[in-house]
Amino acid sequence: MRRLRRRFTRPRVPYNDQQIADERELVKKYGLRRKRELWKAKTTLRRYRERARELIAEKSPAKEAVLLQKLVSQGMLAEGSTLDHVLGLTVEQLLNRRLQTVVFQGGMAKTMLQARQAIVHGKVLVHGRRITFPSYLVSVSDQGAIQSLFTAPGAAKPAAPAPAAAEPAEGEDA
């Protein structure tokens, strides 16, 4: 039987004015629906950092390489990073790897909320597969394989395929 683990933790101090303001700013900037999504991202980041601290103490190069390779393939770290770089990760770096943010930054939608709606409605494909949750973490290999099945008014239009060799119309001399 699968043992489920809670995917987020709430703030320890629920009514801290500065924390509420910071969270509200991030929710607005990244088009999140609820603060719970932000808390999930913070928890994921916290687990990566905990793992890095354990590996620093353990000094296991093989396990270090696995964690670093995972974060490099997700696009959160540059190639050749160390465990110290893992400790320096921010929640914004994690939120920038969400499908919703990548679709918006790729010019497929005018706003974050429009990107979210397109994803939820199934208008975005990754490697030909329909992904319908905006929190999907886009890896580096997935970055170029995102396709949009919609055109947002005012958003950047996808490049049209080059036309085949034009044949002369009837009645025209070539």
Short characterization:
This protein is mainly alpha-helical and 174 residues long.
Plain-language structure description:
This protein is mainly alpha-helical and 174 residues long. It folds into two domains: 1-93, no CATH class; 98-156, Roll (Structural Genomics Hypothetical 15.5 Kd Protein In mrcA-pckA Intergenic Region, Chain A), CATH 3.10.290.10. The protein has helices at residues 17-30, 35-58, 61-73, 83-87, 91-95, 99-105, 112-120, 140-143; strands spanning 124-126, 129-130, 146-148. A hairpin with a 2-residue loop joins β1 and β2 (129-130). It is globular and about 75 Å long. The mean pLDDT is 88.
Q: What structural keywords apply?
A:
174 residues, mainly alpha, Structural Genomics Hypothetical 15.5 Kd Protein In mrcA-pckA Intergenic Region, Chain A, 3-stranded antiparallel β-sheet, 8 helices, 3 strands, 5% strand
Q: What is the global morphology?
A: globular
Number of discrete domains: 2
- Structural class category: mainly alpha
Calculate Rg over CA atoms. 21 Å
- How many strands appear in the DSSP assignment? 3
Mean pLDDT: 88
Amount of beta strand:
under 5%
Q: End-to-end span in angstroms?
A: 73 Å
Strand order of the largest sheet: 2-1-3
The helix fraction, in percent, is 40-55%
Q: N-to-C SSE series?
A: HHHHHHHEEHE
Q: Specify the biggest β-sheet.
A: 3 strands, antiparallel
Number of helices: 8
Uncertain residue ranges: none
